[in-house]
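Chain A, query sequence.
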Amino acid sequence: MSTTTRTRARRTAAAAAVAMLVATAAACSSEDQDRPAPKPSTSSPAPTAHPTATYSPPPTMPTGKPGTPKGGLPKDVDEKDATAVAKAIAEVAFTYDTQLDRTRADAQRRTARWLTPAYAKTALGQPVAPPGANWDQMAAHHGYTTVTARQAHDTAPAGTPTSAYRQFEVTVKFRGRGSWTGPDEHWVTWLHLTRSTASSPWRADSMRVSA
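Chain A, predicted structure.
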């Protein structure tokens, strides 16, 4: 048997092995396709597919405690002003306090008052995974954040009395016990706000975040 024929045979055997694992037909070489398929022995049981592996998501984290984070929350937000509402959402979404919060999602939940009911249900109703090493480090120092949001301007559809687009550049500073500081984070947020009438309060129905 030539080297080319032996190589082709090995590849065909590997393809057949993969095919049995997923219980699908294997792709065969042109040489194998010309051969008649051998009939299975009546004394051998038919091959069965292996069960499909399932993914187990991490357990959902519990929510934090109510209260005002050490970094503060915006006060007296003019809900008839789309810019004021968008800025409040952008700031609150990144204002963490590990004395109250279990994950970053707790800060996001504090924005619910300025979201449409449908968006709040979608955005805040997702399972929350453990926050990771950076959060654990901040929590070890009783850390919290202070946030500033500066309005930016990007190409966006023109607003109307009931629809508005706002963009903010957000700077997040991490502080903690014993003069601990973490590296700053910088984010850009794009929000679409809506209201039912020109005299109703503004609510966000979508928010996009990018580093």
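The radius of gyration is 28 Å. The beta strands are 144-152, 163-175, 181-194, 203-210.
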